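Late entry, evening session. Most of the bench is empty. Finally got around to the prediction I had been postponing all week. Sequence below, unchanged from the version circulated by S.P.
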Amino acid sequence: MYGISLENVKRYIKEMYLRGNRRSVILLGQPGIGKSESVRQLAQELAKELNKEFIEILSNEDAIKVLEKPEEYFVLIDIRLTQIEPVDLTGIPRDLDGEITYKPFLWMKVLAETAGIGVPVDAQ
């Protein structure tokens, strides 16, 4: 079995982020080993380095606040995959002249317009 320390994972993701490489990274491991907390710490570190206010988006009110001045914030959005439906990741389907398009959720707009990290995790 292959393993890497959470500190090395944080360092790797941080390097990727600062270089502009925003590829998705999946952290797999037993519940309670610190995956989510490590990413939260990383987001706080990046916010400080980028001179932005760290905020964890917990509500639509948080999202609206961030979207008023997106350049000021570094966001963390923590999504528990076992507690959501597939539509929660794709957006709401809409028929547009016979074509299906998806209206994104507010948290998706926040991640598109601000610096930040979205964390889909499997809460067990």
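Two things to note before I forget:
Residues 49 and 60 are 26 Å apart (CA to CA).
The longest helix spans residues 35-49.
Will write this up properly tomorrow.
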